[in-house]
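Me: I hope this is not a bother. Any chance you could explain this protein sequence and its structure tokens? It all follows right here:
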Amino acid sequence: MGEWRQTNLGQLLSFSNGRSSPARGDGLPYPVYGSNGIIGYAEKSNAGPGSIIIGRVGSYCGSLYMSGQECWVTDNALRATALNDDDPRYLYYLLSTLGLNNWRSGSGQPLLNQEILSHIPAAVPPVSEQRAIAHILGTLDDKIELNRRMNETLEAMARALFKSWFVDFDPVRAKMEGRDTGLPGHIADLFPDRLVESELGEIPEGWEAVPLPKLIDVNPTRSLRKGDVAPYLDMANMPIRGHTPDVVIHRPFGSGMRFMSGDTLVARITPCLENGKTAYVDFLKPGEVGWGSTEYIVLRPRSPLPTEFAYCLARSDAFREFAIQSMTGTSGRQRVPAESLSHYLLPMVPPQIAERFGMLVSPLFSRVSAAASTSRTLAALRDTLLPKLISGEIRAPMTVQSELKNDGAVRGCA
């Protein structure tokens, strides 16, 4: 194995500041990175695949992300790209072990800049070993990413069904127009063939428009004594896309919102609400109580609605628009009062349709939960190997290095 060389980050990476965020919205192709990760999606990019994003200011100073696709890096972060033949993914893993937050300047508003980063010392192995290390750790991260994408697809299927049945009323409209509903006969028969006017607008005949709290409990009572060690979900780990958080820790209960398996959590404070921070609690044991930020609203559907109904609702455009418009408070600290949800109207779904919806979406959520659990196990393994490989305590096997070197030679001759 070759010798490691002593250098500094400025010899390995080119650093540049991000730029003001462009307009963001759903369905756009490029992730927008701030200091706290992906904060939305935009129609244009300012960084290429393989870019490393470093939080440069505030409480997320030194946070790290790597984009596998074109992206936009905002002015709360810096972009880093490899200068030489050094492996970009290896450099990302190297940065994650350097405690970049400890190099920040300033106390009131912590800051990292290009000058500071460029002078941070580092020891790196030969490129062949860099690639082997990146391959080992990257294989784990690739599986985690594959699970994330699969989960995103499964969740999109559940949300599409929610929108079709309970927002657009597609089965009813199909019947009205003499079209096939696309549903099995026994399910199609549950829907009427006429829409009628209501406070909510047109809804299926026989349904009723009711305030949200009639169907969903808002901030239901959960018992947890002060000082009890319980699962804790921090706002920083609330997912923006998908419903499963990457990190849940255990912490003594102080004060915060309490929740149980099957609850939906919605961030109610700006900009977390606008950024889409929402979670479905599927990471607790039966009967276990977890807790988190006081800035969560907890939603729990009443029977016969399945628990997944509240999550699909919380992700819907109409609900999010209502919540954002209901925010009160001073600029920069606006939040949604929980009581404002009593003004949000929902169609009262007939029990048989509610139960059928649950039968269709619950298996999708179960698959998401299983994949997320696998990903957390893989992440724990990665986090155990990472410092040992980067420090040289564990050396990447020569067989891996040789295979990667030969593979690179074959690709170079192609």
Q: What stands out?
A: Residues 409-414 have pLDDT under 50 and may be disordered. The radius of gyration is 25 Å. The CA atoms of residues 37 and 45 lie 15 Å apart. The first helix runs from residue 88 to 96.
